[in-house]
Amino acid sequence: MSTSNVCGQDTNELRLILSLSFASMVIFINLYLVQGMLPLIADAFSVTKSHATLLLSVTSFTMAFSLLLFAVLSDRVGRKKPILVSLYLLVILDFCALFITEFSQLVMLRMLQGALLASVPAMAMAYFKDELGNNALLKAGAIYIAANSVGGIAGRLLGGAMAQYLDWQQAMALLTGVSLIGTLIVSYLLPKSHFLKPELELGKWPLKKSDFKGFCYHLADPKLRLMYLVGGLAFMVMVNQFSYIQLHLMDSPFNLGRFEVTLIFLCYLSGTYASYRSAKWVAKQGVKRVFIYSVLALLAGTLLTLADHLTAIFMGFLISAFGFFLIHSSCNAWVAYRAKEHRAKATALYLCSYYLGAAMGGPYLLPFWNLWGWQGVVLGSVIALTILALVVLKLVNSKSQSGQLALES
Prior knowledge:
Blueprint: H1 3-36, H2 38-44, H3 49-52, H4 54-77, H5 80-96, H6 103-117, H7 119-131, H8 134-165, H9 168-189, H10 213-219, H11 222-250, H12 268-285, H13 287-304, H14 310-338, H15 343-396
């Protein structure tokens, strides 16, 4: 292979990683913006702050099931077109949000957005697996997950700033501009698929019954089923803890302001670091140890917040975010490696479970919050994390793994 061909291949790989990372940032800014805007949404639409937290749940719910549809569609028509079309439609919906006047309308719009937000998460790891070698896949996946966390942080902090300084229409105008700029960057950078050959036959409906058999194939794998459950339980706790801690920090004795309270999302930076380093740690320590350490970090961080002091709360969330993103990065890469075929469907099933966990976590923790406040949220979280620990132990102690969970196909 000539030097020019090698350089061209390296350029395409870099463009793929950068473009999907930018796309994920657009997606996660849109997904998590409302989490930083809870006070503004509550005031603008005359609902309670705890009621406003359910917006994230409805978005995650439609996103979860749309992941399955996008996974099927991508195998039939390719990866690039569905990603770009969904991003441009997302920009249009952001613009439509300027004219929302009722909370019920906002719920419906967020449900539609959730369906579009599924495109990139459903296809990104499969896109990497199609175009990159095994050596580059773990690194690309780690960078992609790190970009997810950066997008999540940016969305929440942007939402907090909007809640503090802008009204609803101004906030949505700014979001539309951010989404449009990000989408234009992705359009410029995203390369064509070189190795995936779409199965769409001209003149025929893009989906057929046999397209859904891949889901059954992966659900028949007991290890993958456990992995899906791990991701769902971990995210169920983590993302909703961040919603309820905002409400706690805005109450006495903390009395933090609308933007100040969103600074708790900077704790996601420990998760960004964990995501980036996860590939090396998995290679060195093995997934078994990484999973166990991750669950312990989630439990330790959650319990530390019971000290109910700002320093303890921030330290607790730093530890929890580190553990969560470490386990999520490992799960994401492991699923992509294990899938011998129907890769997009394998990833979509994992992420479907992941976002269903997020959708169920809000309603699950709400009674704990209503009865006992933040201490109740910790209690509900510990119950869920105990179940997570049992699932992880069953996964890593599987006899067929000889005591060591390997990242293998």
